[in-house]
Amino acid sequence: MGQAALCHPRRGFLQYRRSALPFAAAYAIWIPPGLSHHSSTPQATRYASVYVHRDHCSALPQRPCTLQIKPLLRAIVDDFASRGVHEPATEADARLALVLLDQVRLAPRQDSYLPTSNDALLGPVLTQLQANPATGARWRLAHERHTTERTLARRCRRDLGCRSTSGDNDCAC
């Protein structure tokens, strides 16, 4: 089975083979069928996994990646979790599961949850975070660029659509 893992509202790492893939709350991790892996988060978190039968995985990525979580996907997963649905048992839940599968299939994919920006200030910060996700506090990143956290926050909102610049919310910086 393939697996789409959603993490609320923290970040973590998926380790597979000799690679690590960072992830954050605005993204799910796609793990293709048969891939041996281990995931971890630095803090306790609310977590949901969607397991997709191998028969439905042919149109899904063949290697691990992040999937941008759209509101409909999040709503279906949250609904199933709140009702304790582990496998669709009703026709209505089966239809919702097909919509969920479509949302996973259509979700924008990235090799990492860290977005990019052409902004002269924000771009290098994101590149640094991409190279080393454990780089550190945003105040230090801002100080290294001779700017303020607030300026980085405004640019994250403008360029990335983030509500926050905290790594444990939905933005990379």
Averaged pLDDT: 77
SSE run: EEEEEEEHHEHHH
Number of helices: 5
Structural class label = alpha+beta
* CATH homologous superfamily designation of the largest domain: Regulatory protein AraC
* CATH topology group of the largest domain: Jelly Rolls
* Beta strands, count: 8
Instruction: Report the uncertain regions.
Output: 164-170
The domain count comes to 2
Classify the helix fraction into a percent range. Answer: 25-40%
Summary of the model, kept short:
By secondary structure, this protein is of the alpha+beta class.
Throw out a few tags for this protein.
173 residues, alpha+beta, Jelly Rolls, 2 domains, five-stranded antiparallel sheet, three-stranded antiparallel sheet, 5 helices, 8 strands
Q: Would you kindly provide a written description of the structure presented here, covering whatever features stand out?
A:
With 173 residues, this protein is α+β, with helices and mostly antiparallel strands. The chain folds into 2 domains: 109 residues, Jelly Rolls (Sandwich), CATH 2.60.120; 59 residues, no CATH class. Helix content is 34%, strand content 23%. The protein is built from 5 helices and 8 strands; from the N terminus they run E-E-E-E-E-E-E-H-H-E-H-H-H. The strands form 2 sheets. It has a 5-stranded antiparallel beta sheet with strand order 6-1-4-7-8, covered by helices on one side. Strands 3-2-5 form a 3-stranded antiparallel beta sheet, with no helix packed on it. Helix 1 runs antiparallel to helix 2. About 4% of the residues have low confidence.
